[in-house]
Design brief:
By secondary structure, the chain is mostly beta strands. About 10% of the residues lie in helices and about 55% in strands. It has one helix at about 1-20, and strands spanning about 20-35, 45-60, 60-75, 95-110, 115-125, 140-155, 155-165, 180-190. It has an 8-stranded antiparallel β-barrel with strand order 1-2-3-4-5-6-7-8. The chain starts with a helix and ends with a strand.
């Protein structure tokens, strides 16, 4: 009996997805990010993101928007306080490059405005290792964040602004403090 219910649920889901309107597109834009911890400067730094997205309509108001983005986050190590443990031993910039996969729930507030919220998983694909002492790996290889924002839809153009906050500790140096990403993304997209 349970297997019949699962098959019915799967059939309804796939039938709904098959009838859904799907748009694909590309996007790129500006990241304003920082890492929350006393070892880093409390200021937003510039980075960028580029990638692609799909808009999957599920009715008139709701939809799902998966994306694949290359994200560059930048921060600056703070050495102004002598008594703070600084694992990077530098006052230079640290650049973190992530392959990020957000899965967003879209809600059409109006024809032109869409609200978005959802999780994002990021995989660290490179870091500026010349900042690290003795080749020490200072950052974990993954990040999990929550996103929220809005998109303005003008024909095929997508103007998006969103805020994200990291939920897990990205530091990997045995520090007592947690290092968490946070920031803003402003992007321009084109749907096909």
């Amino acid at each position: 009996m349970k297997s019949k219910i699962y098959v019915l649920i799967a059939f309804v889901f796939f039938a709904q997805t098959a009838m859904a309107q799907i748009n694909f597109g590309i996007k790129g834009g500006l990241n304003l990010t920082k890492i929350d911890d006393k070892a880093f400067k409390d200021e937003f730094r510039y980075g960028y993101h580029v990638g692609g997205f799909a808009e999957i309509g599920l009715g008139k108001k709701f939809g799902i928007q998966p994306e694949v983005l290359f994200n560059q986050y930048e921060t600056k190590v703070d050495t102004s306080l002598v008594n703070i443990w600084n694992p990077l031993k530098t006052d230079q910039d640290a650049k973190l490059n992530y392959l990020s996969i957000p899965i967003l729930i879209n809600y059409k507030l109006a024809n032109i405005i869409t609200l978005q919220a959802g999780p994002q998983v990021g995989v660290l694909i490179s870091q500026d290792k010349n900042l690290l002492e003795n080749g020490q790996e200072a950052f974990k290889t993954g990040d999990f964040s929550l996103l929220g924002g809005a998109t303005i839809n003008i024909s095929k153009l997508r103007f998006t602004g969103r805020y994200f906050v990291g939920l897990n500790d990205i530091g990997d140096v045995g520090n007592q403090n947690e290092w968490k990403n946070q920031g803003w993304q402003l992007s321009l997209g084109l749907a096909f």
